[in-house]
TrEMBL record:
Family membership: Belongs to the homoserine dehydrogenase family.
Gene field: HOM6
Active site residues according to the UniProt entry: K224 (proton donor)
EC number: 1.1.1.3
UniProt protein name: Homoserine dehydrogenase
Role this protein plays: Catalyzes the conversion of L-aspartate-beta-semialdehyde (L-Asa) to L-homoserine (L-Hse), the third step in the biosynthesis of amino acids that derive from aspartate (the aspartate family of amino acids), including methioinine and threonine, the latter of which is a precursor to isoleucine; production of homoserine leads to a branch-point in the pathway as it can either be O-phosphorylated for processing to threonine, or O-acylated for processing to methionine.
Residues reported to bind L-homoserine: E209
Domain Homoserine dehydrogenase catalytic, residue spans: 153-353
InterPro entries: Asp/hSer_DH_NAD-bd (IPR005106), Bifunc_Aspkin/hSer_DH (IPR011147), HDH_cat (IPR001342), HDH_CS (IPR019811), HDH_short (IPR022697), NAD(P)-bd_dom_sf (IPR036291)
TM regions (residue ranges): none
Catalytically driven reaction(s): L-homoserine + NADP(+) = L-aspartate 4-semialdehyde + NADPH + H(+)
Annotated NADP(+) binding sites: G8, P9, G10, L11, V12, G13
Record-level Gene Ontology MF annotations: homoserine dehydrogenase activity; NADP binding
Cofactor(s) listed: a metal cation
Length: 364
């Protein structure tokens, strides 16, 4: 039995619990025993020496983290789950720097880690190296497929390429569902929407962060590029990676998201000019991240792609990642939904299965 302790049961954590509950009721559960034994949010926590009942998990907010739950304490939580019998995986569903910094301590206590939290793998490289050092074939493991592309097999594909000795020439992709949606609608032949209108629709549809500048500044893409570069063996850093912030200079310091949205139409002409120039050259605009495997030109930027390029024909909010290697001179492409609670939870669930298989807890 693999014990699972969930930190931060928000949208993604709740979706994971739903998937685990559904799976526990399927005929395959006997070959894949995964049990939730701990849940902690910012206020309450609960740890059990036996799996939480399926019925309780279905109503975890009231039945597990209700009035009888203890006050949240991450230190005590880690102590309690590490003392449980059998292997235990902590699933960090937060985006917290502070929690990411706890990974080495958790690993030292023999806890496995599965997470969509990008901070430990794209922040201070010393933390990344420390995590790598503490992860051994016989010891605790760390899986973070969902940090890039949610449930898409991006990191697993890259790991397979690296482990089999292929030479990475370039990894290039549209890594943001928000920016994918924006430019797939704004920069396409025949489109008439202004850039500010596209951003407004994306915000109203829930594609953007509450403040769209958190998408438009490119930092989320930069983190994913940094993670890919490090997994590929490079020492990329957010401090040195060139990142194009497409938020107009005059709007970067305005006080609120509302003020930003109100003033964004002032810059529609700027974005129209960029788009018109691209279309006139038979191209479209796409916001891309790139890992340069042979030089020192990794970047995150707004770029032009010809109309026959795979990036130009992308639809909706999909992600697309192209791996160009010594073996795959015609790029290996991974494409699909790269955001959303359900697909991110799927990526986490798949990583939990890998922990199970790696340590012989169960067979798929």
């Amino acid at each position: 039995m693999l014990n699972v302790a969930i930190v931060g049961p928000g949208l993604v954590g709740s979706a994971l619990i739903e998937q685990l509950v559904a799976h526990s009721q399927s005929p395959r559960f006997a070959s894949l025993p995964i049990a939730v034994v701990g849940i902690i949010n910012s206020k309450k926590m609960a740890v059990s020496s036996t799996p939480f009942a399926v019925g309780d998990l279905g109503e975890w907010k009231s039945k597990i983290l209700g009035d009888s739950a203890s006050a949240a304490d991450l230190g005590q939580f880690a102590e309690k789950v590490s003392a449980l019998k059998g292997p235990t995986a902590v699933v960090d569903c937060t985006s917290s720097d502070t929690i990411a910094e706890l990974y080495p301590h958790w690993l030292s206590k023999g806890l496995h880690i599965v997470t969509p939290n990008k901070k430990a793998f794209s922040g201070d490289i010393s933390l990344f190296r420390n995590i790598q050092k503490l992860t051994t074939p016989q010891g605790p493991s760390v899986y973070h497929e969902a940090t890039v592309g949610a449930g898409l097999p991006v990191l697993s594909t890259l790991n397979d390429l690296v482990r089999t000795g292929d030479k990475i020439i370039k990894i290039e992709g549209i890594f943001s569902g928000t920016l994918s949606y924006l430019f797939n609608n704004f920069s396409v032949p025949g489109a008439t929407q202004k850039f500010s209108e596209c951003v407004g629709v994306a915000k109203a549809s829930g594609y953007t962060e509450p403040d769209p500048r958190d998408d438009l500044n490119g930092m989320d893409v930069a983190r994913k590029v940094t993670i890919l570069g490090r997994v590929a063996g490079q020492e990329l850093s957010l401090d040195t990676l060139p990142v194009e912030n497409i938020v107009p200079d005059a709007l970067r310091s305005v006080a609120s998201a509302d003020e930003f949205m109100t003033r964004l139409p002032e810059f529609d002409e700027h974005f129209k000019k960029l788009n018109d120039e691209a279309l006139a050259s038979g191209s479209v605009l796409r916001y891309v991240g790139m890992v340069d495997g042979i030089g020192n030109q990794s970047s995150v930027k707004l770029a032009r792609y010809s109309l026959d390029h795979p990036f130009a024909s992308l639809k909706g909010s999909d992600n697309i990642i192209a791996f160009t290697t010594e073996r795959f001179t015609n790029p290996l492409i991974v494409q699909g939904a790269g955001a959303g609670a359900a697909v991110t939870a799927f990526g986490i669930f798949a990583d939990l299965i890998k922990v199970c298989e790696r340590f012989g807890v169960c067979s798929a």
